[in-house]
Predict the 3D structure of the following.
Amino acid sequence: MKTIVVIDDDTDVRRVLAELLRRNQWEVLEAANGDRGIELARRHRPHAILCDLLMPGTNGFTVCSTIRADRTLRYSLLLAMSGRGFEDNRIAALESGADEFLAKPIDPSHLLSLLNSRTSHAPAALSSSRPWVDTGEGEWVRFWGVRGSVPVPGPDTVRYGGNTACIEVRVGGEIIILDSGTGIRALGEALDAEFGEHPRPVTLLVSHLHWDHVQGFPFFKLLYTTGRSLRVLGFEGPGESLASVFAKQMQTPHFPISLAQLPAHVQFEELHSLDFSIGSVRVQAAFVNHPGICVGYRLSTERFSVAYAPDHEPFIRTCLESVKTTASEADRKEFGRREDERILEFLHGADLLILDSQFEAEEYVKRVGWGHSSVEDAVDMAVRAQAKRLCLFHHDPSHSDEQIDRMAQYARKLASKAGSPLIVEAAQEGARIEFSAAVPVKGC
């Protein structure tokens, strides 16, 4: 029997809805206020939650946002209802996390149809503290976009790819996406083909809000399917929230469908900690050296770790050559050294290091202070951090396949000259690295 929590301060409404649902083989738990409803939801992890918006105390909007912030309730269908059926109420309810909005008086047949269709594929592990665990399907990283700044399709970028930053990581039974550049469009198609009517929750980690790292988001197919769930984590931008940046690029006249109109449930969470978890995966973040607010991420399990710093420039370079300050050269050098050591500690021992290496040395001389690294600096960081494998990333839009080939070959020579066993390759769109394999798959 499926379980539903009905939250409404109106006793008569609760009674009518409970009778209807029980006649149709639902186990009904009733709550007269928002706090009690949240408590019941967390205790029982129901298949569905039906919540009135206007209640004294904790209102329904807060209930919706609280429930959506709880990962143990991510499979619960969340329905908001109100006797004030204004469009603003509907939009606010959906933005707060509700999957659907129902205006009172509620049509019984519509409610039952909605519940049956939207909970028919509820996972068997719904009552477990972990909605699903590692399936044994292998753990890996796949590149869907490797380019920086702007997408560059064409004959010169066929092998390495022209889409901007997007990486899929399958670890610890989780599907984690690193950034939503234009590569996320093809990733969405692949996830839809793989899971079809039995979707799994997806988490998107955003390194920063520059356009090349978010511009593919409106074309992510999972957003346009009812019942799909996407959790978006990142730090707020300078003076602007994480959610507002994603919403703005989907506003008229930029895009025909607004964020509020998306059928999928999208939950934005601004991070306030540099150390947190996604299921069994430990996630660490570190503020890196790039204009605005930008972080790198490190994903760790008991078996391996992946470090991702797509936009970063060594602090020592900017401290000595581009930062405007009255501090002495010695003080600037010491500050840059300490900050670089902090990043090296963050990257230390990573099994896979995906690192900004946008420029060749001759190019970098003219671009100090842009927030990107040279190949030389990327290899130096990887060697000093004792990483096992380096993927050169964030390829410059002006670089052809042949130029990236030369950069990768040069990077390998630098690692060898340093006496390091580091494996070095250039990130390649479509390539997949299997962590379960005894020998890493060639061609990252």
Notes: The first strand starts at residue 2 and ends at 7.
